[in-house]
């Protein structure tokens, strides 16, 4: 091929590439929260689910760039949402109507963990496990102190139900205080407990109760700044589409089935509590919830 012809072809290719690049849509940046307690090197369920929802809506909304925000606790996450600190920042949080004004903070109307966080099993002092196995009434359970992270909505729910709640931060100190017998219980979601047991279970003095199962409805939603209207619409559509075709449930099982099996929920005595903060939710989130086939319900009183 003659040099002049080759030169012309290269110029034409370069111009075509530049034109194609100029007309390519710019990816929309999405940012997701990494909880302060997250230690795994693999993407969390929440990050993977957000990616799934975005993948399901590529045709309508175009490409995206999903980025992790710095690790922060719940309170700082809410502050970051209100301040719109990160582009299209989505944080998975337990429902709480007191996070802020709807003008500042909104949530995607889909319970992303299918209600699994509603089921709580507890770490306890190793020396107390035999005593815990004898608890069969709610009044007996209320005599125990329960540790919670500062700012977690669980603390308000438990206080509403008459429990003695001790709020502690940072989060790892809760395991240490239970092991030292300074707290009676530290209860974790059925989706969290296996990984945490593997990390903290060898702590001297720390035990894991196999008798109690505490339930209060705790929908987890993706929260974001209210100005991110298109992002909210996209994630909502993507989640519902993934649920309808079963890919969301498959991802849920991939991340949570082992922890559910570890917790052996159906072998426990179930204590049902009320969550007063869900009364303002105006759609039926419970239709998506994971349901146990059978449990033994606790007595309400002595």
How would you portray this structure in words?
There is one protein chain. With 302 residues, the chain is α/β, with parallel strands linked by helices. It is built from eleven helices and 13 strands. The strands form three sheets. Strands 5, 8, 9, 10, 12 and 13 form a six-stranded mixed sheet that branches. A five-stranded mixed sheet has the order 2-1-3-11-4, sandwiched between helices. Helix 7 (153-160) links the parallel strand 6 (145-149) and strand 7. The protein is globular, with a radius of gyration of 23 Å.
Helix and strand element order: HEHHEHEEEHHEHEHEHEEEHHEE
Radius of gyration: 23 Å
Strand content: 15-25%
Helix content: 25-40%
Mean pLDDT: 89
User: Ranges with pLDDT <50 over ≥5 residues?
Assistant: 5-22
Main sheet makeup: 6 strands, mixed
- Overall, the morphology is globular
Termini separation (Å)?
A: 95 Å
The count of strands amounts to 13
What class, by secondary structure content?
A: alpha/beta
Number of helices: 11
Considering the chains and any ligands shown, give keywords for the structure:
302 residues; alpha/beta; six-stranded mixed beta sheet; five-stranded mixed beta sheet; 11 helices
How is the secondary structure organized here?
Elements: H1 3-23, E1 28-32, H2 45-55, H3 58-61, E2 64-68, H4 74-83, E3 89-94, E4 105-107, E5 119-125, H5 129-132, H6 138-142, E6 145-149, H7 153-160, E7 164-168, H8 172-179, E8 186-189, H9 193-200, E9 206-208, E10 212-215, E11 220-225, H10 229-245, H11 247-263, E12 269-272, E13 296-297
Parallel strand pairs: 1-2, 1-3, 6-7, 10-12, 12-13
Antiparallel strand pairs: 3-11, 4-11, 5-8, 5-9, 5-10
Helix pairs in contact: 2-10, 2-11
